[in-house]
Every structure is written in structure tokens, then in C-alpha cells.
């Protein structure tokens, strides 16, 4: 039941890998360069070199699920948003399908539902996330789509909410996202579901069902 | 049987509108500004002001089909590729579905099938087109997706091909694309089909069936 972590070197990716290692959840960290790989090797974590814009197929060997948390992020150029956040996610969905993976866990974004309601500078990014989510939902691969609000570096509280109304705000810490992802990975019965994710008052188990 | 022409002010859009007028095919040209609208008014063509990033719904009133030939084009910034070529196309697909349109005719691109095989600078654009095509195909709206090769300003020959192998080259004139679109609009029996389009030796009727 090894999960391939696409985007392992990102801020959420690294925190997820640390939690997974602590919980003895088998995973493989997919990274782009040997430089990025060092962080994982130092911690005795399994890792693989692969490229969302190039050779990718081999990264899936022996993996049963995939977690997509790669992101050029809203602050990189939109050419990379198209090639990584959108097309990279689509390539991973195609491979998840052809290799018969049991689940694709996608880190999306709260405003991906309706990009024109996002702040103007984030709209292109949200359009890419919306299209990537839709592509995944139509592949026939069991999925869970997690849609965090605005990410912060606040420490983990282990308490989340699944709507802005419930949360009273639109923020969520990366640490809480990583913890929620670990819960999702360990809960294979959750399939074909979407959840918004914000800082809140419930445990992942209480909130994500 | 009026067709809404989204992106009417583009190079293919204008040529299509001229052909449609000559053939007495009812259409409405959707444009972004009164400045753009002048060209259509001067020719006695029906037109409507609407915005792929804003108010759009009203443009569909009285229309039965939609032709999407809007494109920020590969030479604009990729933020506009995300907002127009991708998200604009998705919004039109959602409206085509909710309004029960009989067909969505999409102008896509030859290399949208496999963006990483396109020249590097075109890859983000092709990723957007691939995602837009996939979104359309999963909406449940009858569609035709036309995938022209590299566009030229050569004069119309009225002769096309539907593969690079058949054509012997990867180019197609905008004039031939416009003529093929007119043929598609007038052939409502063609649904849920995709065609590559290159300059060639067959009439649209011989090639697109």
C-alpha cells in the first residue's frame, strides 16, 4: 500500500512525508533533482527522481496510491501553472488509470470551484486547479480531492473544518493539511469525495467522512 | 438554428462570420467591446457584447449551437491562456449544458492531444487546449472538436486533410479552417467527433464525416 507523493519537496509534501514516516505509512517521495533528494535520503525516506514534464512512468513502480501535492504555486509564472499544476496532474491521472491505482488523492484549492470569485491575481491558478480536478474526476480512478483555503505556516492544531461558514475564516495551516492528508491516506474507504479544508475545531476523523 | 460565435473578432472568427453571412447561416458574433462590434455592425451582422471573464449568460439567448474560436493565442501571456482558452471554454461548456444547446463546436489544436510533443514554447498552450477539450467531452453536450495544425494566412483552397500523414505537412490556412467550420455548422448530424485539420486535397464534405 505504498503511496507515491508527487511534489514531495513542497512545503506540504515534506510535512506529509515526515508524518507518514512517523506513522510507518509506506510512501515514496517523488522529486525532480538529486539536490531535492538529499533531504529525503538524510531521513531514510524512499524517494524517486522523476519529472512531471518528462520521464514519469517509472516513479509508479510498486505504488498503489498517489498523492498529488505538486504545485508551481500561485506565485510562479502561469506557464508553469499550465505545465505542472494542470498538465502534470493530468499526466499523473492518466498513469494512475493505466496502472490501475486504487486512489488518487489531490491537493486542490478552495476557490477552484469558481475561479472568477477568487482574487484577480489568483484566477488563472484556480482555473488550472478546476480543470485538473475535473480531469481527474472523469478518469475513472477512485479519488479524493482536498481543497484547502489560504495556506499559512501556523503550527498544527490537528483541528479542521470543511466549510468557510463552519471555520469562520478561509485559512488553514500547511501542518493541518499534511495531517488531514495522512488521515485520508490511511482511510481507503473514502473514495470519490471532495472536501474543503480550513482550520477548525474537529479532528480529521470527525470532519472528513 | 442560430450559432453563437465566441471569439468572433479573431482571425478565424471573422472569416467564419463572413462565410456564414454569404451562406445565409444564422449566427451571432460575440465580441468584447463596442470597438470590436463595429466591424460586424458595418456588415449588418448580428452581434452581442459579452465577456468570457465576466457577464456571459445573456449572449446565448436565442442560440441553439455555439462555436468556440476564442483564443488568446499562443503569443499572449499564459495567464490569459488560462482565463480565456481554458476557463472561458469551460464556462461556455457549462452554459451550453445548462441551456440545452444542441452542439458545441470547438476550435482546438492539433498538438492538444499530446502537449509534450509540441515545441517547448507552445506546450503550456497545448495543455490548456487539451484540458478544455476534455472538459467539454465530459459535459454531456454534443460536440465536434476541430484540431487545426499550424495556422497560415494562405488563401482558401477548399481542400483539407485530417491527418499529418495524409497532408504531408502540418499546416492549414485560417481560410480553410473557417470553411470547414461552416461545413460543420451546417451538418448537425456530426456529433461527438474529433477531427485534425490540415491543408489537403479533399473537400470538407469528403474529409469530415
TrEMBL record, chains A, B:
Which residues belong to any copy of the NAD(P)-binding domain?
A: 7-188
In terms of domain of life, where is this protein from? Bacteria
Name of the protein: NAD-dependent epimerase/dehydratase
Q: Which organism is it from?
A: Alcanivorax dieselolei (strain DSM 16502 / CGMCC 1.3690 / MCCC 1A00001 / B-5) (Alloalcanivorax dieselolei)
